[in-house]
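Narrative summary of target 7.
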Amino acid sequence: MTDATTTATDDRSLGDKKLKLAGYSYMLGDAAMVAAEMARGNKFADAAKAGSIWFAGGLAAARYGNPSADKQLELLAHKLERHLTASGAAIPDNAREQNALLKQQNFWGRVENFLYEHPSETLNGAYGVGAGFLIHKGISQLKQGYKPLPGMGGKVANFLWMGGLIMAGAIGGLVIKEYPQAREKAQGKGTVAKVKAYFHEKANRLPGLLYGMNNIPLAAQVMQDFRDHGNKVGLKPHLFSATTLATYVFSNLMLQFSSRDQINEQGLNPSQVAQLEDAAARVIAAQPPALQQELILNISHYLADQKNVGPEAPQIAQSLANRLTEITGERAQEAVNKVSWAEREKMRSIKNQSLNF
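Modeled conformation, tokenized:
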């Protein structure tokens, strides 16, 4: 029999893959969009440019969404290194040699870390850029006599609506802040607050919804392609635009259900946490004694605040002190006694209550 813990773990695992699935599906749809434009005889036109840029965004979501546990450990180690440096600690070369998590990164490594930390923002950014080309094509359609709305007689400038909806969704996906507890905090408040909280709970909901609304003018474009090219010999645009429509329906749903923050709440395993603590301890050991005590206090709270670490601040502080004692041969218990997880929780609660959704 499968217990509740296993079921919850499986659900989280499936949920984490939604952004990756959306990325792969978007890539297929974007490639079909480029093919449709080429089948219309517009090889390097605006829609083909948009599809090419969107393909790159989908690739980022597929490649960098749902990072593995080892990658999450590496990302957190580099965040920890930045925090240590900002706290006044120097990272000695011998510490980098003794713990692989402290290995110096090259430029491409830093770029990849950024993409792993911001896969959906990269997707939405690419979609915003590509939407500009569709809006440009839609304006050209209006100049050619296309109508802005259905029912006005003649062809409709579908690309104008497609570009506008996607641009709005992309901007929303970039500027909306994500608060996983937003809906809980909106309980008992008005309808407007609850609607805002719904979109703040998962920042990808608004772009997923607006990208989904784009399926309406896209469906109209499929019909337009069929009317214009249905009897054409060879590649027919509506076959590709219909493929784009089908894949986008799936992709937009996956995007709506995915979280912007791709760090898994299931957490690192004890061995990975130990690696992280060892990296921190080796850096702390290289600092002056006065700074060592301060850093134990600082780093224990910092790591406890990371949602995928697990142990609370006092436990981390004790582990750091024990490891520091092994490395230096001198006890470092004083800072451990100063760690107050209850006080940290009190301050975090005050901060959360101050958030205005």
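The two ends are 42 Å apart (CA to CA).
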